[in-house]
Write a structure and sequence with these properties.
The protein is α/β, with parallel strands linked by helices and 532 residues long. It is built from 24 helices and 13 strands. Helix 9 packs antiparallel against helix 10.
């Protein structure tokens, strides 16, 4: 990664004089155009800035750092290029395109939908074109089945894939169920998250190698699960600027807005948060100048079932922007007992703790039993395809409002538009002081034209560290096993997951997963090797 990627906007002179920060001078000069502007930004005198500009502006690293294309000062947004890998998704792509179309700063943007399914690409592109036309966004949307051909010139690359698709996801649920293991989502931790990680790691590494070759200066935005493991794999093997993005925090804040009747959830709510993806913790919350935890506890005492807000009282835009789940028992139980609020949905949070899923009755009691929670399991690919067709044919109205996803706003901020505070998944450089460095953590970050700057929260309370450290070492083992094809290590990692009762069951489950997914686990059969 470039030295500028996680840099505070204010840099002391001593830091500037280290060779690693010299490209920042060139980058700022490229964006601001005068020595004086750079000197003010860097708190240096004009003579020092001129010295560095004249000495280093022809240096290859400076040119690379400056590539983020003069984009940052170029108002011609049609020059911004996004390649969306997995762009044939029936459930995700058109929502992402709607978010982009909602931002005038991104109108005219060049977007390439890349996928291996030409039929899906044709249908999704038609819907995306309809959305762009309806919003007069002028988006230049293309499709491609050839990743190498569409990457050159990309400024942003988005990843939203699931190796094996819905059929594999169903097995991620079904195989552990034979051993009495209950899962609610099966895409992050537990046997399902383990299986999904091992399938995705070789594919994601091959993708990032192509990005290194054809678009080395692009920002790589990962939306694929398991978020922590895949983002860690990306950052471990590649210098490409990568970040993992998730909507769980925004989803919770939307729920709270509905519960408490907030007019503007983004302005009214401020939080201090950190953790790992789908096990993120709100440490403090301010709602309109009041303690948000106190407000939630007060609301919970009045409406213990959380049904009051749902029946006929949910604003339509909240439903379409993330929904309101009437069952928040797990997170409110944490708030009452330990004083901190888990921010991910209860279905995700439950899988990190065996006691919530000890039996079907227990899962029902906590409000996370009885059905699969992900939209993929609920509707299936055919259901999502039919929805796209209805939207395209006018049988269902287009939803032309922004969602609670922040990818489009991150693109805007990185290209010189409105700055943003948003949660991101990236290497722990000190955001959480009492967790290991380099492991991927989720924290808020400030995004502007200089990059993505994670915000430090200091040390977490020991109870939260204990919860997180049940999983972080296991995730590190999965990354290593997925990259190296070490089957013994993979089985050991599975045996350490809290949802897995013992080593014998771990070994038997692993054998079954390896048989079912033999073609999707090439690293364990000598058919794929990490190119270092």
């Amino acid at each position: 990664m470039f030295a500028t990627d996680f840099l505070s906007p204010k840099i002391c002179v001593g830091e500037v004089e280290r060779d690693g920060f010299q490209p920042l001078i060139g980058l700022l000069y490229q964006r601001h155009g005068t020595y004086e502007a750079v000197a003010r930004r860097m708190h240096l005198d004009r003579r020092t800035v001129k010295k560095y500009i004249t000495s280093f502006c022809n240096h290859k690293q400076v040119r690379q750092a400056c590539h983020i294309k003069t984009l940052m000062t170029n108002p011609k947004k049609s020059d911004i290029k996004l390649v969306l890998i997995g762009g044939g998704s029936y459930g995700w792509t058109y929502r992402f395109i709607t978010d982009i179309a909602c931002l005038p700063e991104l109108h005219g943007m060049h977007i390439v939908l890349q996928d291996l399914n030409p039929e899906a690409l044709k249908l999704v592109k038609a819907l995306c074109d309809k959305i762009s036309d309806a919003m007069q966004a002028g988006l230049r949307i293309e499709t491609s089945t050839d990743l190498a051909a569409c990457l050159p010139g990309a400024d942003f690359v988005g990843l939203t894939i699931s190796t094996g698709g819905d059929d594999a996801n169903v097995l991620d649920m079904a195989i552990p169920a034979k051993y009495g293991i209950i899962q609610t989502v099966a895409d992050t931790v537990g046997p399902g998250g383990w299986s999904r990680a091992l399938r995705n790691i070789p594919v994601v590494v091959d993708i990032i190698r192509k990005v290194e070759q054809y678009a080395p200066n692009a920002w790589f935005m990962n939306y694929s699960n398991p978020m922590t493991v895949l983002t860690r794999s990306l950052q471990k093997v590649s210098p490409v600027k990568s970040v993992g993005l998730c909507h769980e925090l925004q989803g919770l804040l939307l729920h709270i807005a509905a519960f408490l009747g907030l007019a503007d959830w983004e302005k009214d709510t401020k939080v201090k948060m950190a953790g790992i993806n789908h096990l993120i913790w709100i440490l403090a919350m301010d709602i309109g100048g009041r303690d948000g935890f106190d407000l939630l506890k007060e609301y919970h005492r009045k409406h213990p079932a959380f049904d009051y807000v749902v029946e006929g009282k949910v604003p339509e835009d909240l439903i379409y922007s993330g929904g309101v789940n009437s069952r928040q028992h797990i997170k409110l139980d944490f708030l009452e007992k330990i004083g901190y609020l888990s921010a991910a949905g209860d279905a995700h949070t439950a899988e990190f703790f065996r006691h919530f899923l000890a039996s079907p009755q227990t899962a029902d009691r906590w409000g996370v039993g009885g059905h699969f929670h992900t939209f993929a399991h609920q509707r299936g690919v055919e259901g999502r395809k039919k929805k796209v067709q209805r939207l395209l044919n006018g049988e269902e109205a287009l939803w032309l409002k922004p969602s609670h996803e922040h990818a489009s706003r991150i693109i805007t901020a990185l290209t010189g538009g409105q700055e943003l505070l948003t949660p991101v998944n990236t290497a722990n450089l000190g955001q959480i002081d009492n967790l290991p460095r380099e492991v991927v953590v989720e924290s808020q970050a400030y995004v502007d034209q200089l990059g993505i700057h994670p915000i430090a929260v200091g040390s977490l309370p020991q109870i939260l560290i204990q919860y997180l450290m049940r999983h972080i070492p296991v995730q590190e083992m999965i990354v290593e096993a997925g990259l190296t094809g070490n089957r013994d290590l993979a089985v050991q990692a599975l045996s350490c997951d809290p949802l897995v009762p013992d080593q014998d069951i771990a070994a038997r489950m692993a054998d079954e997963f390896f048989r079912e997914f033999k073609e999707l686990l090439p690293q364990f059969y000598g058919k794929w090797k990490l190119d270092v």
